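User: My collaborator sent over this chain with a note saying "see what the structure looks like." That's all I know about it. Can you take a look?
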Amino acid sequence: ITTGNQRPINPHIYGVNFPTSASYIEHLGVTISRWGGNAETAYNPFGDFTNAGNDWYFENRGNDNADSWIEWVEGAGSDTMVAIPALDWVAKDSTSYSYPATIYPNQESFDPYNANAGDGMYPNGSWVPPLPQTNVYTPWNMSLASKWLTGLVHKPTIVTVDNEMEIASSTHQDMHPSNIGYDEELARMVNTSVMAKAALPNALVAAPSTCAWWFYWTSVIGYTDNAAHNNIDWLPWFLGQMNTASTKAGKRLLDYLDIHYYYAADTSANDAAAKALRLRMSRSLWDPTYVDESWIGTSTPQNHQGNPTCVWLIPRMQALIAQNYPGTKLSISEWSSTADTDITGGLLSADVLGIYGVYGVDSATYWATPDETGPVGLAYWLYNGYGTHFGNSSVQVNLQAPDYVNGNVLGYFASINAAKKISIVIVNKDIKPISLAVSNIPTGSYFIRHFGGEAGVAKWQTTTTFKQTDFIVVPAYTALFMQQQ
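Assistant: Without extra context I'll predict from the sequence alone. Here is the result:
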C-alpha cells in the first residue's frame, strides 16, 4: 500500500434507489437515495399519483409524497436525488389506465389483477394507437414543476431531469408515442434545468439519465439523428450543448453527467460459467483492454468512439466530460449486479463499490433496493454499515501477482481516513481460497468483517492483530474488510 498516492472517495457512491426505512439507511450506510425510475416520469405531486407505464399495463396508481420522502430519508442521514417529470403529462388520478379491453379487446396481455387493463400491444408486437392522453393524464409544464419545487419544505440534494427520456416512446408510449431525438431531448433538459436552478438555487442538476450503452451514442430515431448532428454521438453532443447553454444562461446548467449502466453480458443461466463471467465483467468499468463479452464486443460498433468494443465506462465518461464540459461530475444513478440473491451478485457489488472509489465516480445508486441481509446489501454493509466507514481517500495498492492483476478473480482496494487509519477490502471472486503476502501495512489491531464463503451470505466481524510479515488468506467467494484501529 502506498499512502502517498491518494484520490478522494466521494461518499455518494454508496447510494440506492428507494430505501425501505430509516433503519435500512443506517444499517447499510446509504449515503444518497434516489427517487427515480420509469414511474416518476408521470408523478403528479399535486395528488401523489403516478402511472406505471409499460412496466405494468400503463395503469395509474397512488404514490408516496416526495416532500415527506425527502424528509424521512434525509432525517435518517442520507442525501437525496429526485427526478423531475419533464414531459407534457402526469397522472390525473390513481385509478385510470390507458388501454382498456372494452376498447381494445385483442391486446397481447392483460393485468391478471385487473382484466380490463391491457399492455397496449397487439399480439403481432405493434403498439395499440393510444387514446387521448386526457383519459389518464393531466397537462404538465415547467410552471407547474416550479410551483412544486418551490413549495417543497424539504429540498433534494440533486435533481435529475426525468428518467431515460430517450426511450419514452416505449416506456410511456401512451403519453409520448413519437420518438424522441437529440433536439427534443436537449430542449427539455435545458428548460427543466433552467427552471430547477431558479426554483432550487442550491440544488445540483443531473442529466440525461440515459438508459444503456446503445443510447449513450444514438437516439431511438437512429443513425439519421447522428448524421443530422454532424455525426456526433449523443452523450458528447449533449455535453457540448449543455456547456453552450450554460454559457448563454450565465450559470452551470449541468452539474452531473448521469447515466444508467446495466451489464450487457448474458449471465441468466447462472451456472458456473455465467457466475465467472458475472464476477469478471466489472472490468468493463475500468479496463481499456477488456473486450466486452456481449454484443458490444462482437458487433459492428454503432458509435464513433475510440476502442468501441471495450466499454471502459468510467474513464471513457470522464474523458468525454473533460473534452466537452469540464468540471461536470459523473453519476451512475442505476446499476445492478444481475443477480441480487446470488453470492456472486454480492461479490460483484463489493468489487464495483471499490472500483467506484478508485476511479472517482461522484455518485452512484443501485437499482433498485437490495435486500438488507442479501448478498448485495452485505456489500454495502461491508464498506459502510452500522457506522463503519471504508475511508475518504483511496490509496494505491501494488499487486505483484500476475494472475490476479487483471481483476478476473480478485478485487483489492485500500483507503485512508481523516485519522490516518488504513482500511482494506479484498474480494476473492475465485472458487478457491487466495493467500496473499502483504507488506507496507501498519501493524497492530484491526477490525475485520467479511461475508460470503461456503454459506453464501454468512457474515462475521471481529478484531485481530496484524503483523508485518503476515499472510492474508481469503476463503473462496468471500469479501473481506479490514480497518486499522
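A starting point for your reply to your collaborator: The first strand starts at residue 2 and ends at 8.
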